[in-house]
Design the sequence.
């Protein structure tokens, strides 16, 4: 049985580790990484880096490499690849599962302002603050490029490129982040508003706690929904059970 994991997340890596430890007979795992990070952390199993050429390219890859299962464990905001995965799985007749960490839930003391896109988030900022901690990722900087009254601290894994705010400092870093570290970032840079995406998970959640403690407003970009008709699970352990169940249903080889 051949499983293709569309990864690049901590959950995808954890699933690959679980599958490697489980050692199901005849199981082959290929981990696909988009290649947007210069030095990705490679999970156990085979790895490929780069895109497929859209839904048709992915469907062709599934057929050519005899994939039996497809798991979309990409970032919750990787909407294009998720929709391509749904189309490709339907075209190639390969079962598809989405692995999505739960989104964040506000608690008492949070001052969240939800936005449907980075552009909507940018439109909210003039009324909320002037020193912005921006953690939406380097691809979304163009949405904030026209703001002239705000100063931005932009945190990303790799250096930003393309249109970006004129008043900007870059902080190159990779999670997980600690609460003490996030407190220090807010204090040192005199941040008065945080902009982030509802990525969920524990690795980057401390910034929300630090903002709550400091009484800062948070602009939270809502995540896109999982494509219609695609089954979703919240954790790698559930995805492992899905693979196990599919493996158990496979017919035995001749003479088995």
Sequence:
């Amino acid at each position: 049985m051949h499983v293709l994991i569309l990864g690049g997340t901590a959950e995808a890596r954890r699933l690959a580790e679980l599958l490697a430890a489980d050692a199901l007979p005849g199981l082959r795992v290929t981990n696909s990484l988009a290649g947007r990070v210069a030095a990705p952390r490679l999970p156990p199993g085979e790895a490929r880096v780069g895109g497929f050429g859209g839904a048709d390219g992915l469907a062709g890859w599934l057929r050519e490499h005899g994939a039996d299962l497809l798991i979309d464990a990409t970032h919750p905001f990787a909407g294009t690849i998720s929709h391509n995965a749904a189309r490709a799985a339907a075209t190639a007749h390969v079962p598809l599962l989405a692995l999505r960490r739960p989104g964040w839930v506000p608690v008492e003391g949070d001052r969240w302002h939800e936005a449907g896109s980075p552009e909507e988030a940018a439109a909210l900022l003039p009324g909320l603050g002037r020193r912005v901690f921006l953690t939406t990722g380097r691809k979304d900087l163009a949405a904030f490029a026209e703001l002239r009254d705000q100063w931005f601290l932009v945190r990303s894994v790799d250096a930003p490129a393309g249109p970006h705010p004129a008043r900007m400092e870059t902080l190159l870093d990779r999670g997980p982040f600690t609460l003490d570290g996030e407190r220090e970032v807010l204090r040192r840079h005199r941040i008065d508003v945080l902009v982030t995406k509802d990525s969920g998970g524990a690795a980057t959640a401390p910034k929300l706690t630090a903002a709550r403690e400091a009484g800062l407003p948070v602009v939270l970009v809502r995540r896109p929904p999982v494509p219609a008709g695609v089954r979703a699970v919240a954790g790698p352990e559930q995805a492992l059970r899905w693979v196990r169940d599919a493996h158990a249903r496979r017919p035995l080889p001749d003479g088995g």
Remarks:
- The mean pLDDT is 93.
- The longest strand covers residues 28-33.
- The radius of gyration is 20 Å.
